[in-house]
Amino acid sequence: MKNLILPLLTLLLLIGCSKDEVTTQQSAPNSVQTERLQTIGKPTAVDINKAMAEFQQIVMAERARLAKTNRAKIACMNNIQVPTDFATIQEAVDNACDGAVIVVKPGTYTELVVVDKPGIKFKANGDVTLTGGFVLNEGADDITIQQFTIVVGAGNIQAINATNVNGGKIFQNTISDPAHKNSTAVRYINGSNVTVHGNNISGTGWGVFFGSTAVNGSSHDNTISNNHITGLTVGSIIGLQGNCDNNFINENTLVNNQTRSNAGVLFYSSQGLGGYCDNNVVKNNISSNGYLGAWFFNGGTNNKIGPNNTFNNNRTYGVYIDGSATGNTIFDNTAQGNVFCDIVNQATDLLSNTFKNNTATCTQGL
């Protein structure tokens, strides 16, 4: 801008000098002077106006350029604090760069946060309650949600709902639905490589759900561990649906869930659901005092159910296996006190699965 001002001042100074020269020379005019008067007299004012107009255009263009540059600098932020930088979590997301860290300070936030950017890390710093939840749309890969207290909001039935995303970590959150709306705490559809770890879940219909509603959808390589899920009145607890392979379900406590249907641990797969559940490990879990301890519907192949699962005192069965489940091993589990029976094998081929070293009073099809 300084570079523009100096030429303009020089121009005005020269114009001023021309006027003085004209005034002085008028006392003794001659033909040359008359010609100069005709040349520099009247047009001088026109030149000033034109110069000022051009200068204003240059100033406006410069201001526009600076404004654009400033907007580019603040178009996204890599480190954001809520509510210091933005009043809401959603505003923080809208202004975040890919891979940004969003730290939320103590308080209660009522919003349904929609994310469509990858790599964002949400971390609650202190006692943070989010009434509503998170929606992770396609493109929101590798999202981390940590240490929030999430209460399922009145207008939605998922605390964390993700579709067509890969990667990510959901850990150390407390998730609840006091209204018992048959909601889901953590729901991934067509996702893979997600870790769900160390969460405390209560009052939701489905605690953790990995599934597929489309052919070739998958939920692979998830770790579902150390979840404590209690007090349900409807739905299931930990469910994997569709093409779900190589998941690790370990040390979850699922008790006193008087569900109306489904199971504490549910593998629900078939070709029509996008594929089968294969090579999963379910160990060291407690699924008791609910509707059904564990149900493997067309449960795929090479799943290991054991050791040290406890499926006691459920309203129907402890463990129920049916359909085309083959090559699965159910071993070193305890299933007792279930109303209908403790362990039931209703697979299409009764000899295709292995049952060994289980503690049960009632068994069928073994």
UniProtKB/TrEMBL annotation:
Q: Which domain of life is it from?
A: Bacteria
Q: What is this protein called?
A: Periplasmic copper-binding protein NosD beta helix domain-containing protein
Q: InterPro entries in the record, alphabetically?
A: NosD_dom (IPR007742), Para_beta_helix_rpt-2 (IPR022441), PbH1 (IPR006626), Pectin_lyas_fold (IPR012334), Pectin_lyase_fold/virulence (IPR011050)
Q: Which organism is it from?
A: Runella salmonicolor
Write down a Pfam family by its short name.
NosD
Cite the Periplasmic copper-binding protein NosD beta helix domain residue spans from the record.
158-315
